[in-house]
Amino acid sequence: MTHPRPHPSLIAPSWPHCSHGSSEQDPVGCRGIHIPGHTACLTHLTSTDRRAYLDGLRPGADLDLRGTTFEDRLWESLLDTLRDSFAGGEPVMGDARFTSAVFECNAWFDAVTFGGNAVFDEAAFQDDGWFEGATFESPASFERAAFKTYGGFQDATFESRVSFKGATFTGMAAFDRATFEGAVSFEGVTFKEFTRFDEVSFRSTVDFTSTTFGATATFREATFDGSATFDSATFEGYARFTEEILSAVEGLRSATFRHDPRA
C-alpha cells in the first residue's frame, strides 16, 4: 500500500499520470506515468498486468518510470527482471527515467550498469539510496533529488557528465573512490551531514559553486585533474583536505571555511 506524499504538488506532471488516490487535498493523485497500453502506473496496475509488464523486460531494457512510487517488493521484482547472467547477475538498464520517482524503500542500485541516460531529477529517496559500484556509461542527472537518510556512491564510475545540481542530502553522503570521467556539477547542493569524497578521482571539471557542507566534509587523497570551482561554497563544519590539494586546487580559495581545512 502506497502512502500519500507529505506535501503533494497541485501541478500535474507533464506526462500522462495515474491519478490514483486523487482527492480534494491532492487533486492530481498518483504522479506515476502510465505503463504503455494502460491508464495506471506500475504501482497501481493489477497484479496480473504488473506481472505481464515485468515478464516482458530483459536486461538492458529502457525504463520510463517517472513519478512512480516504489516499495520493497515492487522494487525487488523490477531489479530481478533486469539481472544479467553475463554481468555477474547484476541488473543492467538502458535509458532509465526516474524523474520525480519516490523510493519508500531502500533503493538498491549498487553494482547496476546504466547503459543509457540515467535521469533521477527531483527523485525522492525516503530511505537509503545505494549506488555503490554502479556504472553510468552515459550522462546522468540527479538534479534537485532528495536523499533523506543516506546517499552512497562509493566506487561508482561516471563515464560521462553528471549533474547533482540543487540536490539535498539530509543524511550522510559518501562518494569514496568514485571516478568522474566527465564534467560533474554539485552546484547548489546541500550536504547536511557528514560527507566523504575520499580518494575520489575528478578527471574533468568539477563545480561546487554555492554548495553547502553543513557538517564534516573530507576530501582526503582526492585528485583533481581538471579545474575545480568552489565559488561561494560554504564549509560550516570541519573540512579535511591534504596540503597538496589545498595548494593545487585554486578554486578552493574562494570557498568559506568555518574551521581550518587542513587534514
What does this structure look like?
Helices cover 10% and strands 26% of the residues. The chain is mainly beta. The model has no long low-confidence stretch (mean pLDDT 93).
Quick description:
The chain is mostly beta strands and 263 residues long. Helix content is 10%, strand content 26%.
Describe the secondary-structure layout.
Elements (H helix, E strand, L loop, with lengths): L46 H9 L7 E2 L4 E2 L1 H10 L1 E2 L5 E4 L2 E2 L4 E2 L3 E2 L4 E2 L3 E2 L4 E2 L2 E3 L4 E2 L3 E2 L4 E2 L2 E3 L4 E2 L3 E2 L4 E2 L2 E3 L4 E2 L3 E2 L4 E2 L3 E2 L4 E2 L3 E2 L4 E2 L3 E2 L4 E2 L3 E2 L4 E2 L3 E2 L2 H6 L7 E2 L6
Parallel strand pairs: 1-5, 2-6, 4-8, 5-9, 6-10, 7-11, 8-12, 9-13, 10-14, 11-15, 12-16, 13-17, 14-18, 15-19, 16-20, 17-21, 18-22, 19-23, 20-24, 21-25, 22-26, 23-27, 24-28, 25-29, 26-30, 27-31, 30-32
Antiparallel strand pairs: 3-4
The mean pLDDT is: 93
* N-C termini distance: 47 Å
Neighbour order of strands in the largest sheet? 2-6-10-14-18-22-26-30-32
Per DSSP E runs of 2 or more residues, the count of β-strands stands at 32
* Secondary-structure-derived class: mainly beta
Strand content: 25-35%
Give the biggest sheet: 9 strands, parallel
Instruction: Give the helix tally.
Output: 3
Outline: globular
Task: Report the radius of gyration as a whole number of Å.
Answer: 19 Å
Low-confidence stretches: none
Helix content: under 10%
